[in-house]
Amino acid sequence: MTTEGIEAVFLTTHNWGKAAKFFQELGYTLEFATDHGSGQLRNGEGPYVFIAEVPEDQEPQTRLVLKAPAADAFRPDPVVEVVTPFEDTHYGTQEMTVRDPDGRLWSLQAPAKN
């Protein structure tokens, strides 16, 4: 099975408000914000950007999230190292983490089980 392109960009930041404003100035629209320093922005029909605030002692990270059509249909080739198998998320999807040959982590996101 293959993925269907980039679903999202997940960013962590030390200042949710400044990060959200930065992307809004670049043409992104705030789709929603949480009460714990995170939210989702989108620009057109492309991937969304989800930003979450982390404490100052954590380095901000960037992660691309690839779209998978269905978790139960994904059978990775042995060249794909599965770090964590598909698991339900608190935000209504399923997510898997894989590692590429250079050690980078990638997230795959699939719809929640029906």
Give the helices and strands, then pairings.
Layout: E1 6-13, H1 16-25, E2 29-33, E3 38-42, E4 48-53, E5 62-67, E6 81-88, E7 93-99, E8 105-111
Parallel strand pairs: 1-4, 5-8
Antiparallel strand pairs: 1-5, 2-3, 3-4, 6-7, 7-8
Residue windows where pLDDT falls under 50 for at least 5 positions: none
Q: What name does the CATH topology carry?
A: 2,3-Dihydroxybiphenyl 1,2-Dioxygenase, domain 1
On the 0 to 100 scale, the average pLDDT is 90
**Largest sheet properties:** 8 strands, mixed
Distance between the termini: 20 Å
For the record, the CATH class is: Alpha Beta
Tell me the domain tally. Answer: 1
List the strand order in the largest sheet. Answer: 2-3-4-1-5-8-7-6
Strand content: over 45%
CATH architecture: Roll
- The CATH superfamily appears as 2,3-Dihydroxybiphenyl 1,2-Dioxygenase, domain 1
Number of helices: 1
Tally of extended strands?
A: 8
Write down the secondary-structure element order: EHEEEEEEE
Tell the overall outline. Answer: globular
Write down the Rg: 15 Å
